[in-house]
Specification:
This protein has 386 residues and is of the alpha/beta class. 43% of the residues lie in helices and 13% in strands. It folds into two domains: 4-17 and 263-385, Aspartate Aminotransferase, domain 1, CATH 3.90.1150.10; 20-259, Aspartate Aminotransferase, domain 2 (3-Layer(aba) Sandwich). The protein is globular, with a radius of gyration of 21 Å. Bound molecules: pyridoxal-5'-phosphate. Pyridoxal-5'-phosphate (PLP) binds next to α3.
Length: 386
C-alpha cells in the first residue's frame, strides 16, 4: 500500500484541486475586502468592482455581454435555474409544456426535468443517443414540437467524455425559436464556450471542475430568453438569482478561468496524448475490455471503460488501497450499486455496465503516474476475475 503522499489522483471529472492563483485572489475578500456588493459605501464598492470584473472575465470568455452572466452556487443550481426558470416562463407566455432532454444528462438536468413532469404538469421526452453516447441533430429536428418549451443537451458527458454537436443542435432550435440549454460543466476546462458559435441560449458552468472553488458557478442567459427566478429576494443578478453574491468564490472562479485560458491549448494536446496512451494500453493489456464513449469526439482528459466480469465498486476499492483515485462514472453515483443510466442508454448490457471505470486526467497527471497505474489496474482486474 502506498503512503498518503504517493497517492495519485485520476478523478479530475469529479473535482479538481483549486489553483494557487485562485486561492490568492480569494484571500483579500475573506479579510479586509469583505463588503456586500449591494452596499453603497466604499466597502460595498470594492466588492462590487471585483464582482463586475469577474463578470466581465466570463462575458469575454463566452463572447457575450456582462448582463448575460448570472452567478450561482454551482453547476447544479445553474442547471436548475436554466430548466425551471425557462420552462415556467415559456409556459406562462406561450403555453409550451414539452421538455426535450438527452438520455445522457447529468442528474442536475434529468432529475429536474423528471420533477417538472411528475409534479408540475410538463411533458418530458428523452432523446436517445447512439452507442457512443452522442445525440443526433437529425433526431432533435424530428422531435421538436410547436409546444417545445426547452431543449437541453449536455456539451461533454461526465461519465463517458463524449462531446455532443451543440452548434448544430443549437442551430436547429434557433431556427424554430426554441430555447436551447447546454450543461457545459465538464467542457469548461477544454472546449470553446463561445455562445455565438454554439448557438445556445442558456449554458451552465461550475467552478470546481476547472481548478476553482466548489459552491460557485455561472449560468449564461441570452438576452431575450425569459427566465422565472427560482430564488426570490433582494433582486441581485438582475432579479434572476437573489441573494448576496459569494464574492470570494466568484473572484476565485474568475482567477481559475484565467488559468484555464492560459493552459487550455497545452492541455488539449498533452492530456489527449496521455489519454490515448492509457486507452491504447488498457484495451491492449486487458482482455474483454471496451472503451465507452466516442473514440475521438471526447474530452482530452477523459478515458472510460467497461470490463466484463468485474464489479466496479470492488475495483475502485482495490485501486484506492494502492493509492489510485478513480471513479466508476459520475461522482454522485459512487456508492450506488445500480448500473449507470448513461451506459444503459448507449446500449451497454446491465452486467457489463456494472464493470465501469472512469479515469480522468488533469494538470498534474504525468506519464509516469499512468505507467504505475496500468500494471496495478491489470493486476486488480485479474484478481477480481479469478
Ligand atoms: C455535467 C455536470 N453537470 C452538473 C454537475 C453538478 O455540479 P455540482 O455538483 O458542482 O453542482 C456536474 C458535477 O459532477 C457535472 O459533471
Amino acid at each position: 500500500m502506498m503512503n498518503k503522499s504517493n497517492r495519485i489522483y485520476l478523478d479530475y471529472a469529479a473535482t479538481t484541486p483549486i489553483v494557487e492563483e485562485a486561492i490568492e485572489a480569494m484571500y483579500p475578500f475573506f479579510r479586509d475586502k469583505f463588503g456586500n456588493p449591494s452596499s453603497l459605501h466604499r466597502y460595498g464598492q470594492i466588492a462590487e468592482a471585483a464582482l463586475e470584473e469577474a463578470r466581465e472575465t466570463f462575458a469575454r470568455h463566452l463572447n457575450c455581454t456582462a448582463d448575460e452572466i448570472i452567478f450561482t452556487s454551482g453547476g447544479t443550481e445553474s442547471d436548475n435555474l436554466a430548466l425551471r426558470g425557462c420552462v415556467f416562463a415559456r409556459r406562462e407566455q406561450t403555453g409550451a409544456n414539452h421538455i426535450l432532454i438527452s438520455a445522457v444528462e447529468h442528474h442536475a438536468v434529468s432529475h429536474t426535468a423528471e420533477q417538472l413532469a411528475t409534479h408540475f404538469g410538463f411533458e418530458m421526452e428523452i432523446l436517445n443517443v447512439d452507442s457512443q453516447g452522442i445525440v443526433s441533430p437529425d433526431l432533435v429536428q424530428k422531435r421538436l414540437r410547436p409546444n417545445t418549451a426547452l431543449v437541453s443537451v449536455i456539451y461533454a458527458n461526465n461519465e463517458i467524455g463524449s462531446i455532443n454537436p451543440i452548434q448544430e443542435i443549437g442551430k436547429i432550435c434557433r431556427e424554430k425559436g426554441i430555447p436551447f440549454h447546454t450543461d457545459a460543466v465538464q467542457a469548461t476546462a477544454y472546449l470553446s464556450l463561445d455562445v455565438e458559435l454554439l448557438n445556445v441560449d442558456l449554458l451552465s458552468i461550475g467552478g470546481h471542475k476547472f481548478y476553482g472553488p466548489k459552491g460557485v458557478g455561472v449560468l449564461y442567459v441570452r438576452k431575450g430568453t425569459s427566465i422565472l427566478p427560482n430564488q426570490t429576494g433582494g433582486g441581485q443578478e438582475w432579479g434572476l438569482r437573489s441573494g448576496t453574491q459569494n464574492i470570494p468564490y466568484i473572484v476565485g472562479m474568475s482567477a481559475a478561468l484565467k488559468f484555464v485560458q492560459k493552459n487550455q491549448a497545452l492541455w488539449n494536446k498533452n492530456l489527449a496524448d496521455l489519454r490515448d496512451w492509457l486507452i491504447h494500453h488498457v484495451l491492449d493489456q486487458i482482455p474483454n475490455s471496451q472503451l465507452t464513449g466516442h473514440p475521438t469526439k471526447r474530452l482530452p482528459n477523459h478515458a472510460s471503460f467497461v470490463f466484463e466480469k468485474v464489479n466496479s465498486q470492488k475495483l475502485l476499492a482495490l485501486l484506492d488501497a494502492e493509492g489510485f483515485a478513480c471513479s466508476s462514472g459520475s461522482a454522485c453515483k459512487t456508492g450506488n450499486p445500480s448500473p449507470s443510466e448513461v451506459l444503459l442508454a448507449m446500449g451497454i448490457a446491465c452486467d457489463l455496465a456494472m464493470g465501469s471505470l472512469r479515469v480522468t486526467l488533469g494538470k498534474d497527471t504525468t506519464l509516469e503516474q499512468l505507467e504505475s497505474f496500468l500494471p496495478c489496474l491489470v493486476e486488480k482486474i485479474d484478481i477480481l476475475r479469478s
